[in-house]
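Example 3.2
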Amino acid sequence: MYLRKSFDCNYPMGQDPVWGITSNKLNFSNGVKMKLGVIMAVLHMSIGIVQKGTNSIYFKRLPDFWTEVVIGLIILWGLFGWMDFLVISKWFMRIDIEDTSAAPDTL
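Structure, written as tokens:
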């Protein structure tokens, strides 16, 4: 049996250890792995775009820099970077499971 000493806590990367004894453990860990995969993919694509930017500056292809590198980073970070930010911020958000103030009314 797992006893909580405090409800004012958060778990590493949003994964509660109690999920390990539940019946849907596989579904939950697959979700965490999928989120980590998206975060790593965005970082990997960002590194590639930045490398393309350094090459375009070195070879003095400024139109390529502005149209492919800058616009590419804006689109990548605007769509997927924002999603990654929300996922990571949710992992560090402290949640009080005993708080019922935000629960909908059950009339």
